[in-house]
């Protein structure tokens, strides 16, 4: 695996530059407190952290980007409002996507639901920037705690087995996929290469995928990155498409919700995360994806539950029906 240091722009034969300047992840998730309002912040969703629609809907904010914002915002909010509780991290987060959010200015609003010395619960809302009559795009419930706490009952389990990146995996790149979904190029990805397609391996099954991910920026993963990473997984139904990733031209895959259980904070110390994804059922246009995020040591970093729809592309579809 001698090419892990090469960015996607140089490793992708059919790479096509975007017609606008890219924004770093760190810059894109910046939030500014709004004077005179408790728990309300403003931000700007840049075009390269949005998903272009294949009809007349323009670009809409990427769901993983929204999840990353809510992680960053929950930390900022709780530290400013309740520093004495020592609960700096979201340890669980359920994100419910209500409707498409347009690129550009937005507000995020945080409210306390229940404060407790052990764990606290807050609500987060991603909404339009109008202070008077706003549109709500995404709601989330976060349980706040301390991911670095070593107190409480524990059972030591064996490390989780992972595929060997050097001997069993190959890098996949796809200029077409990167161009129509710009957020997807933010990671360098390596999958087991023993299958008919790099997207799936017969050893684990066609309804599953194992994918090592490394940030294309060269940075290591933070907790905020896990929010984005969870929604960068190519939908498992594409494993069954003869055209593989080009199946995104035929189908839409709007995410209804994401449920996170964070087990540790990467804290900028982890270069690689394995995404072990399983689709348990696709029926009547609805499927799930269960995701384990595992580090190089076989430790579980987080689990994520996707609830997702799948339907054929239709022009002029209402923006209130999907996230992507």
From TrEMBL:
Domain of life from the UniProt record: Eukaryota
Quote the InterPro entries the UniProt record gives: ACOT8-like_C (IPR049450), Acyl-CoA_hotdog (IPR042171), HotDog_dom_sf (IPR029069), Sec_Metab_Biosynth-Assoc (IPR052389), TesB_ACOT8-like_N (IPR049449)
The segment(s) forming the Acyl-CoA thioesterase-like C-terminal domain are 200-310
Q: Which Pfam families match?
A: 4HBT_3, 4HBT_3C
For the Acyl-CoA thioesterase-like N-terminal HotDog domain, which residue ranges apply?
58-130
Q: Which Gene3D superfamilies match?
A: Acyl-CoA thioesterase, double hotdog domain
According to UniProt, the name of this protein is Thioesterase domain-containing protein
- This chain's source organism reads Oidiodendron maius (strain Zn)
């Amino acid at each position: 695996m001698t090419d892990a240091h090469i960015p996607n722009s140089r490793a992708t034969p059919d790479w096509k530059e975007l017609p606008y300047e890219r924004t770093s992840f760190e810059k894109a998730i910046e939030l500014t407190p709004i004077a005179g309002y408790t728990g309300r912040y403003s931000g700007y969703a840049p075009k390269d952290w949005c998903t272009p629609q294949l009809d007349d809907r323009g670009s809409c904010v990427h769901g993983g980007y929204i999840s990353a914002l809510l992680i960053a915002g929950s930390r900022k909010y709780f530290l400013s409002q309740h520093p004495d509780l020592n609960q700096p991290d979201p340890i669980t987060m359920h994100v419910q996507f209500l409707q498409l959010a347009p690129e550009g200015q937005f507000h995020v609003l945080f409210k306390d639901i229940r404060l407790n010395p052990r764990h606290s619960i807050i609500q987060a809302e991603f909404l339009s920037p109008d202070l008077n009559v706003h549109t709500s795009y995404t709601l989330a419930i976060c349980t706040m705690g301390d991911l670095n706490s070593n107190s409480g009952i524990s059972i030591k389990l064996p490390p989780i087995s992972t595929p060997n990146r050097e001997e069993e995996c190959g890098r996949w790149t796809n200029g077409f996929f990167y161009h129509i979904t710009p957020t997807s190029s933010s990671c360098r990805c390596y999958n087991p290469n023993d299958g008919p397609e790099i997207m799936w391996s017969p050893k684990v099954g066609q309804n599953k995928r194992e994918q090592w991910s490394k940030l294309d920026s060269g940075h290591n993963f933070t907790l905020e990155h896990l929010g984005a990473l969870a929604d960068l997984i190519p939908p498992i139904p594409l494993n069954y498409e003869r055209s593989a990733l080009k199946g995104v031209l035929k189908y839409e895959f709007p995410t209804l919700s994401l449920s996170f259980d964070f087990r540790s904070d990467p804290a900028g110390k982890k270069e690689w995360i394995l995404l072990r994804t399983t689709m348990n059922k696709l029926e009547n246009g609805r499927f799930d994806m269960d995701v384990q995020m595992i580090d190089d040591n076989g430790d579980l970093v987080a689990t994520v539950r996707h609830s997702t729809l799948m339907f054929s592309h239709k022009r002029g579809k209402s923006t209130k029906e999907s996230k992507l």
